[in-house]
């Protein structure tokens, strides 16, 4: 029997040795597998460069080459695997991962809610799934109607004037919104240099402003975790293009002064960008347009249940005020006088959107996500969306109030939180950190919460349970986090190298990101 076929290495190279003789502590297995938790080699170790999963005919010796001298002369260096090897490799890896279909996924600011299967069913209808962006318009009227109806819902829910569907994620939507602000200022010959961003902002906000050519200045927070209105007003002036504000903010608090902030910014000639990543807390209850917002992205993959993380892709439509809508990107959907739907592209922009800032992406956006988000919206209806935001806030407050006696909750005195509960590392035993708590949660069978964000709180832990968790699921999570928090306060040394039960234990994450080891030690790099 060949115990070592190509690419497969026993965890214990001496096949005759007793795997348990060496350690004496934890029982080991010959393969390194632990029951159904399979030890999987790297793909470059399994696949050899000269294997191919499909049978392709050899190109004819005299076949004409039409690549103008660009054809590859050396091997491409990809691992070659058969179909079953490929399927098993990725299935085994997927079983080492955590997903929303496995359990509660408390990542704050990410809104990791259940992805309803109805969304998937509708998105897979061939009329949506099998169309091409360059198909004749007359053959995609149904898809355009989905885009139009989704647009109408997003506008109604936000109280805004227009929407650009094409941005591919939240950060891309931010760029779209800030470029609209830039275009509006340029159109009135008013070049401004500064974008104001609160200290608690998501990192994408200052990155977006800088990428769009603005100098970023930060606005301090008041002691209650909200923007310091007086400090903001004092900084406004003719050089300020606008502010980027998240509401509810990243401390999980509602920015009560947003209306006053918007009035002050507008009076100073600037625009208000709202980061809408936390929209799930207020859907159906607050319309950002009523608060004076000029542009806001909506993460369909957060608020409207389309998958994200490994399940991607994202989608970040941007809703725009009357002042910014004329500068929206191409393409967009509009209706002709005869009632048919059309896409406004470069050729037709002069008639429909003459001040458009141009194209943000090659085509129309993430069609599959539009279909899923609209399915979610229609299956909930207005009353269902209203209930969802209420339950998201209720669940977060349940987590906050259930844990504030064992974990420091810096803004618990600022009133109820919105959709996420924020804790700090104050009161943990010396030598125990937020990271240790997060890693210990993995041993308890949960994905960790967001850690070290927002930056305004030391050792932040941000928990967003979302509305899709039952009370039983929340109680189990709270009990697990409570027990880990108590161990952290008591200084339990075993926390410092948790997780103990994961396929891989504590990693040097910086090294792993900067210098990933992509081949098995001792194997030749491809
Ligand atoms: C998720 C998030 C973003 C960025 O959205 P992506 O879709 O990941 O690009 C921006 N701001 C906040 C507050 C977020 O939570």
TrEMBL record:
Molecular function terms from GO: glycine dehydrogenase (decarboxylating) activity
Protein EC: 1.4.4.2
Keyword presence, Oxidoreductase: yes
Catalytic activity as recorded in UniProt: N(6)-[(R)-lipoyl]-L-lysyl-[glycine-cleavage complex H protein] + glycine + H(+) = N(6)-[(R)-S(8)-aminomethyldihydrolipoyl]-L-lysyl-[glycine-cleavage complex H protein] + CO2
Region called Disordered, residue ranges: 1-32
Top EC class of this enzyme: oxidoreductase
Keywords associated with the record: Oxidoreductase, Pyridoxal phosphate
Domain Aminotransferase class V positions: 208-309
Matches recorded under PANTHER family: GLYCINE DEHYDROGENASE (DECARBOXYLATING), MITOCHONDRIAL, GLYCINE DEHYDROGENASE, DECARBOXYLATING
Entries under NCBIfam families matching the protein: PRK04366.1
UniProt-recorded name of the protein: glycine dehydrogenase (aminomethyl-transferring)
Name of the gene: gcvPB
